[in-house]
Amino acid sequence: MDDFSATNRDHWDELAELHPSTPLYDVDGFLAGESSLMDLEREELGSVEGNSLLHLQCHFGMDTLSWAREGATVTGVDFSPKAIEMARELRDEAGIDAERATFVESDVYELTDNLDGEFDVVFTSYGTISWLSDIDRWAEIIDHFLTPGGTFYIAEIHPVVGAVEKTNEQWAKFEYPYFSDEVHRFDDDKGYASDDTIENGTTFFWAHTTGDILNALIGAGLDIEFVHELPKICYQRFPNLVEGDDRWWRFPGGEPDIPMTLSVKATKRE
Fold first, then answer.
1. How many domains would you assign to the chain?
2. For position 119, which CATH number holds?
3. I need a labelling partner for 79 at 20 to 30 A (CA). Which of 106, 107, 116, 195 fits?
4. Which phi and psi (to 5°) does residue 23 adopt?
């Protein structure tokens, strides 16, 4: 497991250096005052004004800092030292007070050793679940850091998307396992945000079903408030997707009819 984590960390260290300059992340727009958050999480999570918010797997912190602009006192966590370094630099460049936006370098599973306190909100989003080997332990970490009555929220690429290789105007071809307990290796010399060639293109990931995610949260003692499955996605996962004015990508005409985004809101019992 340490080897898998180290390989993935090298991958994300390299991406953390590349991503701030890519159009996908639009750092210039963020520094000019735009939010990097999608409308989905802003509407479904609601106001975070005055809340303490823990952002798991925050990458280089744009979403974390966007929540800070919405009035939360935020703590972003990522296992990539380069990502945390870039997040702190972005925070300072954006003029956000360090007391309102803290960044911690830590693997999610080691977070109880590296961070103290409880939070009103624990948040994570888009492209995080597949990097986790133990989804039950992940849910326990969330429960550990939530204050009683606190809220957990995730907006994520739907697990079905991870099983699909190709699509056209009528069908989706399922190539990868939806149900799997094994670690999977992926090799690609291109990152997802640009055409830059990367050196650390080997990654390891795990498949977790929608049921796995929900049952892990329930098993940790959280009460599920809602589960939403949506026919749109936050990036161009398939070539025939079309971007709307709302920054969401959809299939023209709605076909093939598959879920592409999953959102879940849960509460820790008082």
1. 1
2. 3.40.50.150
3. 195
4. -60, -30
